[in-house]
Every structure is written in C-alpha cells, then in structure tokens.
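Case study 2.
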Amino acid sequence: MTRLYDIVTFDCYGTLIDWDRGIVDAFADAVAAHGGNLDERRALETYERVEPIVEAEGYRSYREVLTESVRRVARELGWALPESRAGFLAESLPSWPPFPDTNAALERLARAGFRLGILSNVDDDLLAGTRRQFRVDFDLIVTAQQVRSYKPADGHFLEARQRIGGKRWLHAAQSHFHDVVPCQRLRISVAWVNRKGLVVPGTQKAERELRTLTELAHWLEEDDNDG
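Prediction:
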C-alpha cells in the first residue's frame, strides 16, 4: 500500500485560523472604541450571511470585501460606526489566532513529508500577515487576489490543480459551502474538518469527516505508516 496523498492544502480562516473568535473580538474592540449597542455574536451571524453576498457581486479586494461587509452589518443592526473606522476588520485580520491544534498538526504533516498549501479567500498581504503565526512553510499559496474570484467559485481549485500537476492532492477545510461542495463538483479529494459538528442533510459525503486537525494529521500519518 502506498500513501494516498502527496500534498495537503487547507482553507485558512475557519480551518487553520479561528475565524469566529477573530471577528467577534474585532467587533467587540470596535464597539469599545466607538460606542454603540451591538451584540458581537449577532454581528458575527450577520457578517457570515452578508460576506458571501458581497463576494458574489463581482471581484473586489478582500480588504474591500471586509470593509463593505462591515458597513452592511452596521446598517442592518443599527450601529452608528464612523465611516473612517469601517476598515477595522481588515486591520485586525492578521492577528486572528490559530486554533490550538493548528501548528502541531501542520508540523506533524510536514515531518511526515507531506507538502502543504493554502487556498484562501484573501489578499496576498493579509495572508502574509497571518502566516507569521504558523510554524511551517507552505509549498503552495492560492489567494482570491491571484485568481480574481472567491470560493466557492472554481478559480482557486483550478489554479491549484494546474500548479500541483499529477501529484496526489487532498484539500481540507471547515466550510462545506466554500470548499467541500466545489471540491466534490470538481472531483477533488476533500476532507471536511467539521469543527462545529454541523449536519448538512442531503449532501454527498466528503472522503473523510473529522472534527479537528489533530484527527486529520493522525489519519494521514496512519495511512502513511500503513504504506
């Protein structure tokens, strides 16, 4: 038996980086600085609904997506955020923390000889800031800025496929909507890192469903050892 995969790519925000905590903390800091009556959890829920709408309107930089999404959240929730501070979410993004299991799992996979990559709905400079929080290097980086589109559109995956060539590839991600569905559409092997324990009825299952990156690393190491 041989190893199933040569390269493992990851979605970044929500899979490697704690997206929910980053957004909630950024809204909390903005409310503390600028006042207003805003529930940060409700802001997160509204933001997660609004952002894909903004992304689908046509390509704009992710910094602009973040800023425009904040404006719409503020309007919808009646929060009088000064226009001059609408960029607070983009400014905070490079400081959003990795999940506790992220770096250890990435290091395990790197030691085991897997090539690693990131496919992310973000600008190059924002991701460069985030990457300072990781303890491994990545062989492949595909961003929205590079492909001029946002997942779940095909751009990231087609670009990654072209760069990866004939190597055996697994993509791992938390978002069923942004990553699992397009991978299945394009016949790309995908592991669903279902951190929130979501149930998505009536859908085709991923190659593997796991709850953490620790489980993902253990599964891939076991497969490697079996070989």
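The chain has two domains: 7-18+97-226, 19-95.
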